[in-house]
Amino acid sequence: MTTTNQSDGNGNGNGNAEPQLGNHTHTPGNAEPQLGNHTHTPGNAEPQLGNPEAHWYSRGYLPHFDRIGTLQSITFRLADSLPQSKLDQLQEIIEALPDDTDPDSAKRQQIETWLDAGMGCCALKHPLVAAKVEATLLHFAPTRYQLIAWCIMPNHVHVLIEPRVPVSKIVQSWKSYNGRWAKKKECRAGARRS
Fold first, then answer.
1. How far is CA 138 from the centre of its chain?
2. Cα–Cα distance between 153 and 177 in angstroms, integer?
3. Is the pLDDT confidence value at 49 over 90?
4. pLDDT tier for residue 121 given thresholds of 50, 70 and 90
5. Are the C-beta atoms of residues 49 and 185 closer than 8 Å to each other?
6. Across the strands, what pairs with 49?
7. How far apart are CA 85 and CA 66, in angstroms?
8. Quick one: three-class SS letters along 104-166?
9. pLDDT above 80 (res 69)
10. Quick one: which H or E segment has residue 175?
11. What is the three-class DSSP state of 190?
12. Less Cβ crowding at N or C end of the chain, within 10 Å?
């Protein structure tokens, strides 16, 4: 994708990020903790008790590594951005892959392609909605994470952070904060139509 905003190491975005509504600086630090020797056994994404280095978790099909201070690239999307028919098709695509192809990588690439196609209502293309999402990202930084870069697309958002609390709490706060705001706006709009 060519529209993501990436840090150039000096805190300046250098991507082609027209849909992005902002850019904040990041002070480069020691990358060793982010690049450490962490292994993941496919199919075993549950936390491994007794091993302080094991921070792999899984919720359904989406394993993730969650450790404070480890750079995290997060993509979240609107509910209608991937119709069920596409999700069903994804399974067929994965099953048809050659044996030497990484299915997780292929899955991510296909999902990104479909997200970039702009399916669904694309509510984030509306300036007021996109501004609210940006305000949410800024609101929780820097107490919960260092916000390094973000790109707001019509039906999904890319965010690069260095978390200071578990990622699950960060994402939950984004969803909750924006969900309550959207619900209020929807109620007000419904009242005006009546």
1. 15
2. 19
3. no
4. very high
5. no
6. none
7. 30
8. HHHHHHHHHHHHHCCCCCCHHHCHHHHHHHHHHHHHCCCCCEEEEEEEECCCEEEEEEEECCC
9. yes
10. helix 167-193
11. helix
12. C
